[in-house]
């Protein structure tokens, strides 16, 4: 199965300068900064981030970080809830690593200086969708990500042995003759000693570049989430897994039909504290949809909301949290309260209009349990990676934990010995560039054809439009064109994966194949980007899970 052809590498000027470090970390969220702090013990570390160091997705995380931190909880309980949410596609070994190492990793965050909310000296823990126990640690009420990012940034800035380059976009990987990592090329925006396009030679590269939310017209992701790391990995030959599983957060503040770009999130923790969904007549509609009703896993809630919207012709539903009262809103959810009020909605007295929007990519660059990708020397953690933890649908508040735990696992693996510094070879791939002006149309067609509800027809139409957008003459190389090319690359791969999986499972909803099909689709979809002529074309391969039923089917 293929999607539209895309450039084999980015058109860019030749590097005007060269530097050398042991480890390059791309990204500055919880995954990237944790990796940097741990890897500094092994050699020289350089963190490259596209904006300022604190500008990624971590700072926007509201609900919290999930871990079995109370006596009433256990890693086994957390494992169970994660596997259920993942709809049969989680890697149990990866989940077990997450839930068993998670509590210690969170406690280390606290030791680093992260200030979580407490009650009588104990961590204040709450629930979110899919969790059967109170295990969500939060900070500042609903500002958990911002507090974690603050603590990590402070720790990195205290570390004299970690170099940081802000306002820099990584262009492509440098590779050795055998295909292993030899470093990266990047463009540094602004004035300084390392200005313009340059090359960083390194022994290892850790991708922690975040998500792909800017593929869609409405998203909770910041503007920097243009899939750069995933596109870079694909162009280097890395295997990407389960890209069809894009999680749409069910409760994003609805700002009207014309709203575009990053939208305000209304955290699942609001429902965890007792808020509930209602239709335009004030009727609750989640009872009977799932045993957890309004706290069902995100895919269930998003589908229920979309069902209501389709049935009624409305473009949003409502969240009712008026019974919280003024004090609870001010203390527990100050960020959301301020966000709602800034848009003219007072949740203390009014219903909150909400609708699903792109939130998180459960798939990504495939890694093993140590964060190693299929390209030697290239590691990945956080949202850009597919560690096997999330399966077909991420359990709420497991994202911060995954970035934390697997960044630590990468550093522990590298402690056994960094790869040798390799000599990069000349890049003979055909360069290409997409016109930056195509992005609004790309976002529109992805939202319509590859959004919450999909079909063969919609995906085919989206792919055809995408192919036409790729053919538009490109402008000069620069950040807008590079980001547009990365978005097109990931969109092409996503369309190929979503077209191939002919079932509905987790956050992948095919209206032409509405049922989950374990006999045919209990397994993962792997995707690569091999060269075909002057361009690269997505290729999917199904990797069935080893079960007796699949063996018989096989």
Polypeptide structure, described:
This protein has about 550 residues and is an alpha/beta fold. The chain is about 30% helix and about 20% strand. The chain contains 15 helices and 30 strands. The strands form 9 sheets. Strands 11-5-4-15-24 form a 5-stranded parallel beta sheet, covered by helices on one side. A 5-stranded mixed beta sheet has the order 25-23-17-27-30. The protein has a 4-stranded mixed beta sheet with strand order 3-14-13-12. Strand 13 and strand 14 (about 195-200) form a beta hairpin. Helix 2 (about 75-85) crosses helix 3 (about 90-110), helix 5 (about 230-235) crosses helix 13 (about 480-500) and helix 11 (about 440-450) packs antiparallel against helix 12 (about 455-470). The longest helix is centred in the last third of the chain and has 22 residues, at about 480-500. The radius of gyration is 22 Å and the shape is globular. Mean pLDDT is about 95; it is low at about 550-554.
Helix and strand arrangement:
Elements: E1 6-7, E2 9-10, E3 18-20, E4 23-26, H1 30-39, E5 45-48, E6 65-66, H2 75-85, H3 92-112, E7 118-119, E8 122-123, E9 125-126, E10 136-137, H4 144-158, E11 162-165, E12 168-175, E13 181-188, E14 196-201, E15 204-207, E16 218-219, H5 228-235, E17 240-241, E18 246-253, E19 261-262, H6 268-272, E20 276-278, H7 298-312, E21 317-320, H8 325-332, H9 334-342, E22 352-361, E23 364-366, E24 378-380, E25 385-386, H10 398-414, E26 431-432, H11 439-449, H12 456-470, H13 479-500, H14 518-521, E27 523-528, E28 531-532, E29 535-536, E30 539-544, H15 548-553
Parallel strand pairs: 2-26, 3-14, 4-5, 4-15, 5-11, 15-24, 16-19, 23-25
Antiparallel strand pairs: 1-29, 6-10, 7-8, 9-10, 12-13, 13-14, 17-23, 17-27, 18-22, 20-21, 21-22, 27-30, 28-29
Helix pairs in contact: 1-4, 1-10, 2-3, 3-10, 5-13, 11-12, 12-13
